[in-house]
Design brief:
heterodimer, A: 11 helices, 12 strands, about 50% helix, about 15% strand, B: mainly alpha, 14 helices
Chain lengths: ~325, ~325
């Protein structure tokens, strides 16, 4: 009795499903659907990047399906598999880690669809293209700027990104290589971890507690920098401890304008997202694009922040 | 009489019905859901959490609780990846599982022998073990230079059309269900979780039984960590964060009682499927990631509430 009733319900449901599914498939139409799997969904850089992706996709008449992972590697792999299951024509991904996400690239290759890395890159041979930034160069430029503005001497703290992500390693390497050339500058504090404002506050507090005369705090992105900035303001070190960020997200630009943040690097995440979609468009049309393209970057400090803010206001 | 019997047996199957309804509704809303690719996808996505949840079932049935499984999985994945280049595949896998069992033994000793609250004990080991992982790895992933090809293949290849990663929980499900249901040991676990005093008075060595459930849980979390390392092609010190919460939610969704004495490995696996299918469905339906969190939270509460209402009637 139990069995037959349950079986009956199951059969009815599956028949209903089978009858309806072609209708729904038809309703979805023949639009090109692309998948997006960024590393975080609550980070201003990625929020802006996703907006750029959506804006360009809309111009092309494409649909965008975005999955989130929030720095959980397995979740990102699973998300990409969900996208492939959904039948996307290509994937834009910002891999959390250079090796850990390779299974997602393999899955895309098996499904014969292109997979483009945005921002962070992968070591996978199946990475179709990397829309990258020149991290070492940027790290070096931040260091040069910092060294110049603290007069070539003093203590410096570094709040780094998640271990294992090559983007942040390269940034830090560019930075430390330049700092090593300044004998008066000493890096007295280094810590790695997730890119959150909360972490920025905490580690900057620790760094300042251990070194009250800290001259500068390097942060691997703006969110961490905004946290570190709060700690510096709370410690009454505004203008004495220079906080540098990276990415040029709107809240960081406003903080530069207010004089609370010393420096950020504008990567224009919005344009970055647009560029990713454009590259995917080229690839889907069968054009050759190489394995890597760089996006432009620009240091933003008090001298040029107004101009950048005015331009961003138009996006 | 017949009707009551139907209602009773249906009530016992609430998690399975939830899963079937979830699948049916999703299947109606997108034809991609029931595609062979996606069904395989769901099995692979469920595999690692299923192993953790089955271990958690032992602890929860025995009346305990384990928050340290995520950290343990990270530890075992890293230990396996560190041992493999020199010791080979078998040493790596066994070392990973042994590391997990050792964490479980420590948990079991403190909880059962010293009588410390399991929530606090395993909260402590969760943080402690994560620290150990960062210390032994220096915070960086292990195996960037490449793990044995056979291990990578274990994380991605199939045997008889089914991923190796899926075979592991499938075999374990059969074995652990047998142990829980049909051995004196299994009955002692249920007896201990169902009423510790009564079990003690009828001659069950409750302390040893409780300690043993944590060893199961740790060893299985360790095995899951090794599977995770194969999937991520590296030992990742940050892997497995929040897995403890997903595992506990899955076990409870499967109908186990947090008070102990109730639950089976099979039902916990159904709980894992509910969690995974829900995430998969929300992705396929392109639900905004912020709303996904709201939906997952609601489903956990709703399933637990439905279960309470059932047991009250």
């Amino acid at each position: 009795m139990t069995c037959s009733r349950r079986a009956g319900i199951a059969a009815a449901v599956s028949i209903f499903a089978a009858a309806l599914s072609p209708v729904l498939a038809f309703a979805q139409g023949g639009k090109t659907v692309i998948g997006v799997a960024l590393a975080q969904d609550d980070n201003p850089l990625y929020i802006l990047m996703l907006r750029g992706i959506r804006a360009r996709a809309q111009e092309l008449g494409w649909d965008v399906v975005a999955v989130s992972s929030n720095e959980d590697k397995l979740k990102q792999i699973n998300g990409v598999q969900d996208l492939i299951a959904r039948g996307v024509k290509g994937v834009l991904i910002s891999p959390i880690d250079a090796v850990g996400i390779n299974a997602a690239y393999d899955a895309a290759a098996q499904a014969k669809i292109p997979i483009i890395s945005l921002a962070r890159g992968s070591s996978s041979a199946n990475q179709t293209l990397h829309v990258a930034i020149n991290e070492k160069q940027i790290g070096a430029e931040i260091a040069e700027w910092t060294a110049q503005h603290i007069g070539g001497e003093g203590k410096v703290a570094m709040i780094l990104g998640p271990s294992g992500a090559p983007a942040f390693r390269n940034l830090a390497e560019g930075y430390t290589d330049v700092m090593a050339k300044h004998p008066g500058i000493k890096i007295v504090f280094r810590t790695e971890g997730a890119l959150t404002r909360e972490r920025g506050v905490k580690h900057a507090e620790d760094a300042l507690a251990a070194n009250p005369d800290l001259k500068a705090i390097y942060n691997s992105n703006d969110d961490v920098a905004l946290g570190a900035m709060q700690a510096v303001l709370a410690a009454n070190r505004k203008g004495k401890t220079l906080v540098t960020g990276m990415n040029g997200v709107p809240p960081a630009l406003r903080a530069v304008k207010e004089g609370n943040l010393a420096l950020t690097v504008e990567l224009n995440a919005f344009e970055w997202g647009r560029l990713g979609v454009d590259m995917l468009d080229h690839i889907l049309k069968g054009e050759t694009v190489g394995k890597q393209v760089f996006i432009k970057h620009r240091l933003v400090d008090a001298a040029n922040v107004d101009e950048v803010l005015a331009r961003i206001g138009k996006n | 009489m017949h009707r009551r019997a139907v209602r009773m047996s249906l009530a016992g199957q609430a998690p399975l019905i939830t899963l079937v309804v979830l699948c049916a509704v999703t299947g109606l809303m997108t034809d991609r859901f029931l595609s062979p690719f996606n069904l395989t996808n769901i099995l692979v996505q469920s595999s690692i959490m299923a192993v953790i949840a089955m271990g958690m079932t032992f602890v929860i049935v025995g009346g305990g609780f384990d928050l340290s499984v995520g950290s343990t999985a990270a530890l075992s994945g890293c230990v396996a990846a560190m041992l493999m280049p020199a010791g080979g595949l078998a040493v790596g896998v066994l070392g990973g599982v042994a590391a997990g069992a050792a964490v479980g033994l420590a948990n079991g000793f403190v909880i059962a022998m010293l009588g410390v609250n399991p929530f606090i004990t395993t909260l402590g080991t969760m943080v402690l073990v994560r620290g150990v992982v960062f210390i032994i790895t220096g915070g960086a992933p292990i195996g960037d230079e490449g793990l044995p090809p056979a291990f990578i293949a274990f994380g991605s290849q199939r045997l008889f059309g089914v991923h190796y990663l899926v075979w592991v929980p499938a075999v374990l499900l059969a074995a652990l269900s047998f142990i829980m249901r049909s051995t004196p040991y299994g009955r002692r676990v249920y007896a201990t979780g169902g009423g510790r005093e009564a079990a003690f008075l009828s001659g069950v060595p409750v302390r040893r039984v409780i300690a043993s459930t944590y060893v199961w849980c740790g060893a299985l979390a360790g095995l899951a960590g090794v599977m995770l390392a194969a999937r991520l092609q590296s030992g990742q010190p940050t892997a497995g964060e929040f897995y403890e919460l997903t595992a506990i939610a899955a076990v409870v969704l499967g109908g186990a009682s947090l008070l102990g004495g109730e639950g089976t490995p099979g039902k916990s696996v159904i709980g894992v499927f509910i969690m995974v299918v829900l995430g998969n469905a929300l992705n396929l339906l392109n639900v905004d990631s912020y709303w996904q969190r709201v939906a997952v939270g609601l489903v956990i509460i709703a399933a637990a509430a439905a279960d309470r209402l059932r047991s009250r009637n």
